[in-house]
Amino acid sequence: MAAKVERVLERLGIPARLQGTRWWAERCPLPTHGPQNERHRFKNLFVRADGTRVAGLWTCYSCHGGGRLVELVMAVLSIDFKAAAAWLSDVDEAPAPEPVVKVRYAPVGVRKRFEMPDGVERGPLKSWNSVARDYVLSRGITAEQVATWDIGYSLMGRLAGRIVFPIVDSSGRLANYAARTFVNDETRYLAADELEGPELAAMLGERFWPVITRSARTVVCFEGAVSGLALERAMRRAGLSAELAGLQGSDVANPRRAARLATFGRVVCATDPDAAGERAYEEIVAMVGGKTEVVRLRYPSERDAADTPEADLASALAKSFAV
Asked: Do residues 53 and 63 lie in contact, with contact meaning Cβ atoms separated by under 8 Å?
């Protein structure tokens, strides 16, 4: 293994020297490392040369990058896993392991933009797989909403068995996704993994926000995507006009997200009627309450927006807007 590590470092153009069981690089080659400290030459990044379980693992003490050889190749050459595995096969015929999820570096250049995972199908609701279509209809989601929000579904890959809601930012770029199970998976919603490079501050519904004059508008914050669409239908029933902002769960502690919400004249917090929803409301008040009015939607029961009858939800929204 020591010889393989040496060949990989040489082919990547990383000057290194062997000390004991580690190859120490002259400088960290990661594109996210930042300014190099000359006093730390041959002291920052090392690659383990020997050991059944640890050979090929690398770590940088300064920028905290780390992983296996395949991730090092991905980062240095700005290529994806398949290309990096093929590159390594030229060095050693042994197959490269799958990427380590806990790698801390940001793989700059691996993707030019955030992309939807493979396997997501989109199109008119009538063309959907029958199981996915029946689930969507059972939750009250209309064919019009499927088309407007560009909703899809997946039967394979990481998002298999999920309805997929693209999260598009205000500039029209795909930033993330919310994927809701329709096969009763224990995890109701999935978002993009950190290594996919999502924009965590983007919110579902942001794509429809007005560019200006937000201070005269109301925005309704919600948790799950299905609840957000239920709120949209209830507002239409009540004749109310407002924007929507999906928080992806009850996580709102994001300064950029808070700054965007603060551009509205009023925030109606429609998070779920439970402890997590109340905490989200309190966080929103703490983060934007000094800049904009924050109103808590009072649900008529302990059920969330998606499970509240549309007429009752419309009535509750009307009361919140009238406060």
From this structure: no
Q: Report the pLDDT value the prediction gives residue 62, as an integer from 0 to 100.
A: 82
SS3 call for 179: strand
User: Which burial class, exposed, middle or buried, applies to 258 when counting CB atoms under 10 A from its CB (0-12, 13-18, 19+)?
Assistant: middle
User: 114 vs 27, 100, 108, 169, CA distance in Å?
Assistant: 30, 20, 12, 12
Indicate which CATH number applies to the domain containing 285.
3.40.1360.10
Q: How far is CA 179 from CA 161, 183, 218, 253, in A?
A: 9, 12, 26, 21
Which two three-digit tokens encode residue 42? 């041959």
**Block mean pLDDT (10 aa), the chain, length 323:** 79 87 86 77 84 74 82 83 83 56 44 80 95 96 97 93 94 92 91 85 92 88 95 97 86 75 93 92 88 93 94 96 87
Beta strands 58-60 and 45-48: pairing type? antiparallel
Round to whole Å and give the CA distance between 247 and 96: 37
Distance CA 124, CA 128 (A): 7
d(CA 158, CA 180): 12
* pLDDT for the residue numbered 71: 84
Would residue 109 count as lying in a domain?
Answer: no
Find the domain containing 149 and state its range: 120-196
Instruction: Name which of 74, 11, 72, 15 is nearest 42 in CA terms.
Output: 15
Element (H, E) at 319: helix 310-322
pLDDT of residue 214: 84
Q: Which residue, of 71, 91, 111, is where some domain finishes? A: 91
Q: What is the pLDDT of residue 52?
A: 54
Report the distance separating Cα 35 and Cα 15, nearest Å.
17
Q: Do residues 228 and 302 share a domain?
A: yes
